[in-house]
Write a structure and sequence with these properties.
- The chain is built from 14 helices and 21 strands.
- It is an alpha+beta fold.
- The protein has two domains: 185 residues, no CATH class; 192 residues, no CATH class.
- Strands 13, 14, 15, 19 and 20 form a five-stranded antiparallel beta sheet that branches. Strands 18-12-11-21 form a four-stranded antiparallel beta sheet, with no helix packed on it.
Length: 465
């Protein structure tokens, strides 16, 4: 089945009438570098990308503030370290060298755009963006039989084929970061490489794009003169959802948050038990079954993920809690609660003096994996690593007879309020974005136990494994 493209397009493309397909020259490289050029024939891709963190990467005020502060504190030694992933095309074109002039860089060159991913011809390393572009008029995709385009030449590349392990190497090259001090700060790609999803057998592997670029039945392109087949696995979502969102007005924010909520839902498999051991105990177990890396991952020195456990009496009064945020303190980080029972998921980072820090250029040691939830690394039940769930017990001495209901869930924030406070106090962050920092609920982690039922509850039980 095919669908001939008849969508309205800008004047730029109206006269093309299949230029590349008819042997005429494709568009100049300078035009192909502009994502707005791609919008005409790839409107769905463009709309999703426009709300993504790839598009936002150079406009994020927290990123800009951190880069400014880092450049000042290192006397410019950071150079292009930050922008090599946040504005890679601008860096390669010489439009910036250190990111300090990003507000003045043309918007088409900011962030991670279409051209930077679809013009890649080689990955020369494993971290800090070792990506080489062809800088030609060929846009590479994951389809072995692409339809000729009126705007550019087309070619297949395993580097952008979600079914290929090579595509994970491309994603991982920017999602694995080693600081100038040699600290392996972000390890998402390295974590994935140790999991069952990185299997060499193509029938068993799951690439980064398999999870972060949901597939749908659709045409890949819409444009004048194109006769594009409707493929069952032809179009992949370009939201690239993780847990970060835009903190200032930005397109597609609601859709981006919806994609995050969807993708987080199946990340964790929980179990909640209320047990009469000794004076009473609440157990909460979390199994990282739905991600191909640690949970959380990425900038884990900044991530704030924690368990919220609340026990109620028969009047719905709270008799015990851990990780419960006070309503009158909206900008509180979980570690600031003074909660001796807090189950915080993360990797503590310290400077050379052993002091806690979230400023990456100061980090001398990172306690990886810290308290992160490990992913599946083997399918062999005889391997001691097969069972990788993590369980925490919360003592409730003397309270068990009064507890009638217990709720549990996992919450996660992309970054801590303390970092924002520090950047605002130093004058590097000039806009207060604290109200825009999301606290995501991992829906699949939500459980409720009630008295009179089974000792343990889980999503598919009782009985619970």
């Amino acid at each position: 089945m095919t669908r001939r493209c008849t969508a309205a397009v800008p004047v730029l493309l109206l006269g093309l009438c299949g230029l590349a397909a008819c042997g005429e020259p494709p568009l100049p490289v300078e035009e192909l570098m502009n994502p707005a050029t791609c919008q005409s024939c790839h409107p769905g891709h463009f709309t999703e990308w426009s709300g993504s963190m790839h598009a936002y990467a150079s406009d994020d005020p927290v990123f800009l503030a951190l880069n400014r502060k880092g450049q000042e504190e290192t006397s410019g030694a950071l150079g292009g370290f930050c922008v090599q992933c946040h504005a890679p095309l601008a860096l390669q074109l010489g439009l910036t060298t250190d990111g300090l002039n990003l507000p003045d860089v043309p918007q088409w060159a900011k962030g991670v755009g279409c051209y930077f991913c679809h013009n890649v011809v080689e990955i020369t390393g494993t971290h800090n963006n070792p990506i080489r572009l062809a800088m030609d008029q060929t846009m590479r995709g994951g389809l072995a039989d692409p339809v000729d385009s009126p705007a550019h030449r087309t070619a297949f590349s395993p580097l952008v084929d979600a079914e290929s392990q090579d595509s994970s190497a491309m994603c991982g090259s920017c999602h694995d970061i080693v600081t100038p001090a040699g600290v392996h700060l972000e390890r998402t790609f390295a974590e994935w490489q140790e999991t069952i999803f990185a299997h060499a057998d193509p029938r068993r592997h799951v690439s980064c794009a398999s999870c972060h670029m949901i597939v749908s039945t659709d045409v890949v392109a819409e444009g004048p003169g194109l006769d594009v087949p409707l493929r069952p696995f032809g179009r992949r979502e370009h939201t690239f959802a993780g847990i970060d969102t835009a903190l200032t007005p930005w397109p597609e924010l609601a859709n981006q948050r919806a994609a995050i909520r969807r993708d987080l839902k199946g990340a964790l498999l929980p179990r909640l038990c209320v047990l009469p051991d000794a004076a009473g105990r609440i157990d909460y177990r979390l199994d990282n079954v739905g991600t191909g890396h640690m949970f959380p991952t990425g900038a884990t020195a900044d991530r704030r993920a924690w368990a919220e456990i609340v026990a109620y009496d028969d009047q719905d009064g709270v008799v015990f809690s851990s990780g419960l945020m006070p309503m009158n303190q909206p900008y509180t980080d979980p570690e600031a609660l003074g909660d001796p029972n807090l189950w915080l998921l993360g990797t503590p980072a310290r400077d050379a003096a052993g002091q806690s820090t979230e400023l990456f250029w100061r980090i001398a040691t990172l306690d990886h994996p810290g308290t992160l939830l490990p992913p599946s690394v083997t399918t062999d039940p005889q391997d001691p690593r097969f069972y990788h769930a993590v369980e925490r017990g919360f003592a409730v001495p003397g309270l068990l007879p009064t507890i009638r209901r217990v709720t549990a869930r996992v919450l996660v924030r992309p970054l801590p309020f303390a970092l924002l406070d520090d950047l605002m106090a130093s004058g590097h962050l000039t806009v207060d974005v604290r109200d825009q920092v999301p606290t995501h609920e991992v829906e699949g982690s939500v459980l409720e136990w009630t008295a009179g039922g089974s000792a343990c509850v889980c999503p598919n039980g009782p009985p619970c494994p």
